[in-house]
Structure formats: C-alpha cells, structure tokens
Amino acid sequence: MKMKAIILEQPEHFSIQEIEVPELKDDEVLIQVRASGICTNDVRDFHGDCSYSYPRIGGHEYCGTIAAMGKNVSDRWHLGDKVVSYIIDDCKQCYYCKHGDENICEHHPKSTIFHNNNGLSGYGGFGQYVKAKAEDLYLYPEQTSFEKMAFTEPLACVVNSINRTQLTYGEDVVVIGGGTMGLLHVVLAKLRGARVILSEPMKERREKALALGCDEVIDPLASDAVAQVKTLTEGRGAKYVFNTTAIPAIAGQAVQMTAPTGTVVMFSSIHPNTPVPVDMGSIHSNQITITGAVSPTIKAFAQSVDLIAKNIVDPTVFLEKTIDFENFGEAITLASRPGTYKVILTFGE
To answer: Is 111 helix (H, G, I), strand (E, B) or coil?
Structure first.
C-alpha cells in the first residue's frame, strides 16, 4: 500500500513522493493523518538550521483516525477513533523515564527520528499515514475538530512549562514573546489566576494578548523592558518569567526581570546557542531559580488533551491558516514569516 508524504531531501528542497505505508508491529496502530501543524522546529529543519539527517519527513503536531491495528492492540481502541499520539520515543527504562521525566529520555535523541543512516528520519506527521504504539495514544471526542487536535503537542509543551513552576493565584507573570507559544503561556497563566504581563514588540500581537485576557503589555523597543516590568511590579520583578524567544540577549533580560525568590523558565531553545552572561551573585543573593522546559511529559500531554477536549482552551484562536499538504511550499513560506501564528497542513479524507 502506498501513501504520499512530504520528503525534505535537503534544506529547502522537498518533494511529495509516494512511499510505502509503515508496517505495523503487533502493538502498534496506523493513524491516517488528517491535520498536522508546522512547528518552529519544522521551519528550522526546512532551512537547514539543525543537525538532523536527510532525507526526513517532519511533522510532530499530527492527529487523525485509526486506520489499522496490530493484533495485540487492546480492544479499547477501534477503527475510526480520533486520536493523537505522544511523540517522544521514550524507552521506559532509563533513569529519566523511571522518574517521570520521559520527555528527556536518554534514548529519544539517539532514535531514527533525528538520525537515520539507512533511510528516512523524522516524526512522520507530514505524510498521509504514520504509525504509533497503542500505549501512546490519546482519544478525542468525535465532535472535536482535527484543527483543534493538531494543537495538542504545542499546548502540551506549554502545560509542561507551567508545570515546572508553582504558579498560583495573584502572582505576577511575565511572558516574553507573543507568538503562538507565548500567547498559549498567557492563556494558561490566566487559568492559574496570575496577573500576566506580555513583552512583545509587534503591536498586533500585543492587542491579541489583551483580547485574550492579558493584563498588561509592554513594547520592549519603546523603552527598557526590564525597567518596564519593574515599574509594573513595585520594583520587584515578576515571580515567574517565561522566555519564549530564541534570542540570547533576551534570555539574559528574562533573568533580570525575575523577582527575588522567583523562577525564570527558558521555554525556547536559543538560536544561535551562544553563552548568556548572568549575574550569579544576584542569583545567589535573591534565591532566583533558572530552569528549562522542553517537550511534554506524558502527564502534560494528557492535560493538554483534557484542556482541548473539554473546551477549556480553544487553541484555534492561534490558527493562521489551513493549507492542503500538497501545497507545502505555500505553507512553509507562510510559516517562515515573522508574525505568523500556527499554519496547519490538512490531509483530507
């Protein structure tokens, strides 16, 4: 059986090819992909800003329906079920998997998702079919749209970021960056009862944040962003700062915005990944915590499904456009533009 997939042969060179549908093991299911979001990492892969092997099939923000099942798959699953899959290839055996940190599994970076000398690398969500372990599936209600489901993984990353803190009612939060991931931080921080300040240079994004319930917005190009945060917080800084931008200098500013006893979360990877000067004496004296947040844990993924399935969060307010996967050139061009929210590829029936 053949399927179509977007094959990235080399940076900025792709083709839509017919390849074999993945063969299932006894504990796996075949998902017919219906929608797949384009992540910032997919954009970086496309432009060659990665160290992964080519050719590859990108796409880890995918969702769809069960098209086939291995013989040992539990009867809790049925053909046609609307599902998403946990995308970390966690080994369930290493130290981190055994301690609830499966998102930083030791095996995952070594998997063929990133490097495959004998064929295609990648998560596979930019194809018409992808296989997944049945134990990694999450079920959605029939009425949930595929466009909403495609936001599961990015929202789960933000849930994990928030879960890395003890954020609660009435505390001051700064979110740096008003893209899709930054504004998802705004939405979830408001659900936790925080006063949220967004630092974002683009006026349209600041206005969108306010419409979503953000309490204060600042323009970091108008005046010193750290000073603006201090003014809004009686000179303290924010209890929690979430940096969703990739710029090293802004990572340094994020630390300076953090109040004594506060926590700064480095949510975004840093590009270029150059060292960031930090006043370690101040970190010591003010008991400031600096931490990171990367891919979602299993718990964060489940919480993301609940937030979307129960209509607590509607992530489609960040949907820029849906584009048929056969028009991938148009989609990746749009996704690469500054100011673009989430672009989702659709795969039809």
So the answer is: coil
